[in-house]
Design goal:
- This protein starts with 5 loop residues before the first strand and ends in an 8-residue tail after the last strand.
- It has a domain of 107 residues: FAD/NAD(P)-binding domain (3-Layer(bba) Sandwich).
- The chain is of the alpha/beta class.
- Helix content is 22%, strand content 28%.
- The model has no long low-confidence stretch (mean pLDDT 94).
- The protein has five helices and 14 strands.
- The strands form four sheets. Strands 8-2-1-12 form a four-stranded parallel β-sheet.
- Bound molecules: flavin-adenine dinucleotide.
- Flavin-adenine dinucleotide binds next to helix 1, strand 2 and strand 3.
């Protein structure tokens, strides 16, 4: 490919969504990720209604829907008390992250996104990007490279995005959902999120 319009560093949900959106507007896009798909990571696996709407507008939702369970809002729980926030006129969706990623990759391929997996982008000062040892002269460099973003560091935005370290883990249980809400359980030492998934799982 000649110089692309955009080089997207990171092929997680943000990078693939940006890539599909750009392709739908005729842009030439390369997405590069150091992992191979489908990429999984610890996650509560709940999509808010805005996320569902975004997937719909990107042409991904029809493929996701059979693998998703709807939910109607969020319940925040602490010390035996709870507060519910129900969505108005829309629903969220629980979907395994790996299933979401698979479908985003399929849609990106269908849309004509060039995807480079198992390749790390090196980002130098001022946002000069190298892929496989070659400089990529894209008009736009999109940093979708997650929490430890090299793009953010190289372009001087790192100072605004620091927080304490956390550890996250995700487990699936063969227990039918007992609520149509995602539950967020707060505790001094951590937070547990319970998300309804299809096929009798949370
Ligand atoms: C415990 C936990 C629970 C969560 N639960 C939810 C939830 O229920 N619902 C929700 O919407 N969000 C949830 N989130 C947040 C959600 O996981 C993130 O917002 C989301 O993953 C961000 O997606 P992303 O594409 O920006 O980044 P990521 O998914 O982190 O993707 C970044 C990608 O960039 C790649 N990369 C990084 N550097 C380079 C490089 N130099 N070259 C090439 N590739 C590179 C990485 O390999 C990675 O694949 C949760 C997060 C945590 C930690």
């Amino acid at each position: 490919m000649d110089a692309p319009d955009a080089l997207i560093v990171g092929g997680g949900p943000a990078g693939l969504a940006a890539a599909i959106a750009l392709r739908m507007r005729g842009g030439r896009v390369i997405v590069a990720d150091r992992e191979r798909p489908p990429i999984d990571k610890p996650c509560g696996e709940g999509l808010m209604p805005e996320g569902v709407a975004a997937l719909r507008s990107l042409g991904v939702w029809n493929d996701c829907a059979p693998a998703a369970a709807p939910f109607s809002g969020i319940r925040f729980t602490e010390d035996g008390r709870h507060a519910d926030g129900r969505f108005i006129g829309a629903q969220g969706a629980g979907i395994r992250r790996i299933e979401l990623h698979r479908r985003l990759v399929d849609r990106a391929a269908e849309a004509g996104v060039t995807m480079r997996w198992n390749e790390t982008v090196r980002v130098g000062r001022g946002g000069v990007a190298e892929l496989d040892g070659r400089k990529i002269a894209a008009r736009w460099l999109i940093g979708a490279d997650g929490r430890e973003s090299a793009v953010r560091r190289a372009t001087g935005f790192a100072a605004v995005a620091q927080s304490a370290r956390r550890a996250g883990l995700r487990r699936h249980f063969a227990v039918p959902a007992w609520s149509d809400l995602v539950e967020v359980h707060w505790h001094d030492d951590g937070q547990a999120v319970v998300t309804p998934l299809p096929s009798g799982e949370i």
